[in-house]
Amino acid sequence: MNIEQIRADFPILSETVYGKPLVYLDNGATTQKPECVVRELERIYYTTNANVHRGVHRLSQQATDLAEVARVVVQQFINAPSSREVIFTRGTTESINLVAHSFCQQFCKEGDEIIVSEMEHHANIVSWQLQETIRGIKLRVIPINEKGELQLDELEKLISAKTRLISVTHVSNVLGTINPIEKIIEIAHRNDIPVLIDAAQSIQHLTVDVQKLDCDFLVFSGHKVYGPNGVGVLYGKEKWLEQMPPYQGGGEMIKQVSFKGTTFNELPFKFEAGTPDYPGVIALATAINYIKKIGLDSIKAYEDQLLEYCTDKLTDIEGMRIYGTSGQKCSVISFLVGNIHHYDMGMLLDKMGIAVRTGHHCAQPLMDVLGIEGTVRASFAFYNTKEEIDKLIDGVKRVVGMFK
Ligand code: PMP
């Protein structure tokens, strides 16, 4: 990987913060966009802007064609059997809410159970809690061990005749743990239970093949995979999506509307009510093509080096506590040092031009399990460098020095 060349593709990386070169280590929250993605958005708005699936005129047809090509790009990226199984949403959060709403409406009755884990993002907790209120379902929770790994033997105990779905993250946005989702899916399917994989933190780091995984649903956000904000993906097996009722009503999701009754469009449009963010969808395909050119295997190998380098250097700092010490991790390090509050650490690092995330990372139940309020989190992308990690380490040491 030619990092210098790659960095040149991301103009924001040349920005300064308080007169210091930006060190952007908050990629778990959102990734920066390569110039080709921003240019594609601009190109669509300047040359091809027209509502999709609605017009017979040339611009509308061009925009529709590009958006449908983008669907195929996503389909191939995750190796979905059919583009009918790729639904565009606003992001991971909306994708999970869609499944929670429509799956539970079709398949869950009072007392039925959904299994999540202690390390889930709020999007994969609260979406189901809303269904607890609406439909009386219950959440069961897979615990983690002291390394921040899922306890799979506990999962087996949680499964019962009432279990309707297991919904887990592929990679923890706090601990960085790569969960053994192949094993989880195997256990679930042995018990005839479908599985939703939250790939918000894995799609940008690992090769995801939905056929090989045999997952029933998989969700991710465009903005975490170098694409635009406000667009995301829900992959679902046709057999589930066909049976699930629409999530929202409106234009495009219908076949025929009358006051006597309405029939719904076929997949994937049944789940895409209203005008979609087609420029976003088209530019998401540009982002996917960009990272495919670099290659996810090269990305993973390089990011693993950054993770190892940073972990080693952080570990040497006195009073350092790293949260998430699994042997299977990717691109995320959460830590606290001594009694230094995570906000103080984050704010002082910011003054040095270093952007890290602080707080509970939308994973308050996990913070409760860890017995802390929040952490400092550094999360890497393939455009980060060892020199930037050195700056982070120096910065953390300086902050520790200030609090001595
Ligand atoms: N799940 C995980 C694991 C995440 O890291 C995030 C984003 N932090 C989400 C879900 C929600 O993603 P979005 O806000 O893009 O919908």
Ordered list of secondary-structure elements with their pairings:
Layout: H1 3-8, E1 16-17, E2 20-21, E3 23-24, H2 35-47, H3 58-78, E4 86-89, H4 92-107, E5 113-117, H5 123-135, E6 138-142, H6 152-158, E7 163-169, H7 181-190, E8 195-198, H8 210-213, E9 217-221, E10 232-236, H9 238-243, E11 254-258, E12 261-264, H10 278-294, H11 296-315, E13 320-323, E14 332-337, H12 342-351, E15 354-355, E16 357-359, H13 364-370, E17 375-379, H14 386-403
Parallel strand pairs: 3-15, 5-6, 5-7, 7-8, 8-9
Antiparallel strand pairs: 1-2, 4-10, 9-10, 11-12, 13-14, 14-17, 16-17
Bound molecules: 4'-deoxy-4'-aminopyridoxal-5'-phosphate.
Word description of this protein:
- The protein is 42% helix and 17% strand.
- By secondary structure, the chain is α/β, with parallel strands linked by helices.
- It has 2 domains: 3-27 and 295-403, Aspartate Aminotransferase, domain 1, CATH 3.90.1150; 48-292, Type I PLP-dependent aspartate aminotransferase-like (Major domain) (Aspartate Aminotransferase, domain 2).
- The model has no long low-confidence stretch (mean pLDDT 98).
- It binds 4'-deoxy-4'-aminopyridoxal-5'-phosphate (PMP).
